[in-house]
Amino acid sequence: MNLHSRNAPSQTTAVTAELCQWIVGLKGSDIPAEVRREGLRTFVNWVGCAVGGARHETVDRALAAVLPFSGPASSTVLGRGERLDALHAALINGISSHVLDYDDTHLKTIIHPAGPVASALVALSEHRTIRGYDLLTALIIGVEVECRIGNAVYPAHYDRGWHITGTTGVFGAAVAVGKILGLDERQMAWAIGLAATQSAGLREMFGTMTKSFHPGRAAQNGMFAALLAEAGYDSSLRALEAPRGFANVMSDKQDYAEILDDLGTRWEAALNSYKPFACGIVIHPTIDGCLQIGEEIGDRVHEIEKVELTTHPLVLELTGKRGPKTGLEGKFSVYHSAASALLRGDGAPTAFTDEVVNLPEIVALRDRVVAVADANCHEASVDIKVTFSDGSTLKKHVERAIGSRERPLSDEELDRKFRVQSALVIGEARTEALLQTSWRLESLAESCEVARASAVR
């Protein structure tokens, strides 16, 4: 179908309904093997990130706030010993999976799709029995829906200041949980409507604890939307396309063809990518290039007089924090990231702690980094020029960073990333068992084995 001619609100009447028809009718066997494989990679990466972030101060504070109000303790907080009711577990695991800014990215929209969807599904898996095969099917559908909705409103929606992971992630969580619950088409439309009215997240929060709250709340709200719909709680049946619905209220762009065209043949879920560095994705070319330079120059890093970066304007808009004071702020500082990569050879979570951000030698080198915006530079590229104290220079151009669609992480690299961050939280032996269980998701009779394998007892 082609809906480009039906983008005006008065002409567009069936977007939500047609999307729900596809969601409800889709079987796991309808999803191509290569898409299911990418969905499994998405899941494994998410588990590693959720465990990796489990001991972050942000998670500690969120747990302290919600524990007194949690209902029956059915669901695991990954990487920890606490158990919460499913709704609160979805919230906390969503926060944990995103707090390190190390999670997956749909590069066309900068959505981090797994956090809201997987956090809801895994929390539900300990409340209701879900086969691993069915959980993976629901995960892929949720990721597909949130990314298609994102495509329909990006970049105008993002440019307004909405954090698109939170605003579209709630739809992904709602339809994924709704698929597990067996909602019919009308109930699925209610779930989407209930998700739409809870869609939220502001880019102003980048560099604070609240950024990771967005995917956590999207997971919780999306699950709640599906549960309400299951109970017969109704909503508008045109939440996406109505004149006062999601797309028209929250964006200057409404391309409904991006939601409905080629459903089942064009898979956005197959385009997911995985971060090798624990920070804003637009910094990755800079870190990649600086790591390469650091390896080339060795001890000459101490002779650097100036580092000049030529980047796309979006890089400075998103990550232009000149003097970060906290690890979370450092994730949105291209200056800190360049200095850390050059001086420490580090772009992992260990590069973005409060301590490292304030190290005198990092601050000194960071102050010698200059970034210039050039609209002709692709947002996924960077030009780096290093000038040494003797006047000599070294230049590096990065066309696409490692972790991009052009240079994707292999399964082995995903495993390495998983092990490094998870072992710091639950130890090497438990990490290895959790990793293998995560890769076996499709064959698990009870997908809750994954969450329980991560628990610290």
UniProtKB/TrEMBL annotation:
<dbReference type="InterPro" id="IPR042188">
    <property type="entry name" value="MmgE/PrpD_sf_2"/>
</dbReference>
<protein>
    <submittedName>
        <fullName>2-methylcitrate dehydratase</fullName>
    </submittedName>
</protein>
<dbReference type="Pfam" id="PF03972">
    <property type="entry name" value="MmgE_PrpD_N"/>
</dbReference>
<dbReference type="InterPro" id="IPR036148">
    <property type="entry name" value="MmgE/PrpD_sf"/>
</dbReference>
<dbReference type="GO" id="GO:0016829">
    <property type="term" value="F:lyase activity"/>
</dbReference>
<dbReference type="InterPro" id="IPR045337">
    <property type="entry name" value="MmgE_PrpD_C"/>
</dbReference>
<comment type="similarity">
    <text>Belongs to the PrpD family.</text>
</comment>
<feature type="domain" description="MmgE/PrpD C-terminal">
    <location>
        <begin position="277"/>
        <end position="440"/>
    </location>
</feature>
<dbReference type="InterPro" id="IPR042183">
    <property type="entry name" value="MmgE/PrpD_sf_1"/>
</dbReference>
<dbReference type="InterPro" id="IPR045336">
    <property type="entry name" value="MmgE_PrpD_N"/>
</dbReference>
<feature type="domain" description="MmgE/PrpD N-terminal">
    <location>
        <begin position="18"/>
        <end position="257"/>
    </location>
</feature>
<dbReference type="Pfam" id="PF19305">
    <property type="entry name" value="MmgE_PrpD_C"/>
</dbReference>
<dbReference type="InterPro" id="IPR005656">
    <property type="entry name" value="MmgE_PrpD"/>
</dbReference>
